[in-house]
Amino acid sequence: QKHDIALDAQQVNEFVFHNIDSAPASVVVDANRHWIAIFKDEKTTDEWIKQLDFTDNAVAKREAVLALGNTAKTDTTGLVKPKIIAALCQSLKLNDYWKLKYGTILQLQQLLVPFGNSLPVVLGDTVVEALQWVVRNEKAWTKMAAIQLLGESRDEKFTDTYLNNLYDESDRVTYAAAIALGKSRSTKAFEALLALRKKPSWKNQSL
User: Fold this and answer.
1) CA torsion sign, 49 to 2 to 99 to 63?
2) pLDDT tens digits for 98-119?
3) Which of 89, 111, 118, 205 could bond 130 through an S-S bridge, CB–CB 3.0 to 4.6 Å?
4) How far apart are CA 84 and CA 104, in angstroms?
C-alpha cells in the first residue's frame, strides 16, 4: 500500500494508518528520496532484509543492500553476517536491475575477501550457487563481478566456468575469466590463455 503524508513544521510527526489488516513487512518513507532531508532509519536486520525482498523500488533496495553490508561488517557475534550473506545471495535472483545486482556482488566481495588478500577464499555453497546463477543468466558488468568473486576461491573446480567465458561478447567478462583462470592454477590455464592472445579486443583487454 502507498500512503501520502505531509509533515508539519515540528520536531515530531506521528502518523496512524487505518484499515490495515496486519503489520507491513516493510516500511519505506520517500523511497525515491524526493525530500530534501537527512534520513536515519532505525531498522533491524530482519526489517532491512524484508525491505530488500518486498519493495519494488530500486533505490530502496540499494539502501537495504548498503545497510545490510554495514551491519555485517560490524558483526562481532558471527551470527548475523551469515544471515545477511544468504539474503544478499537470494536477492541476486530476485532483482531485475543489473546495477543493483552488480552492487550486491560488490558488497559480498567486501564481506568475504579481506583487503589485499592473496590467499584462497572459502566462499561457501550459498555464495557459489548464487554466483554461478549470475554467470549463467547475466551479462557484462554483473557477470564480470560474479566471475571475479568466484575467482577469489582460486579453486580449479571452476575451470570450465572460466574457459566457457574466455570468448564472451563482453571484454570485461573475458578479462575477469582470464584472471580467474590464472588464479586457479589449472593445468588447462596456460594453453587457454596463450590462445587468447589471438582474440581481438578493445584496448587489448584479452591480454
Assistant:
1) negative
2) 999 999 999 999 999 988 888 9
3) 89
4) 11
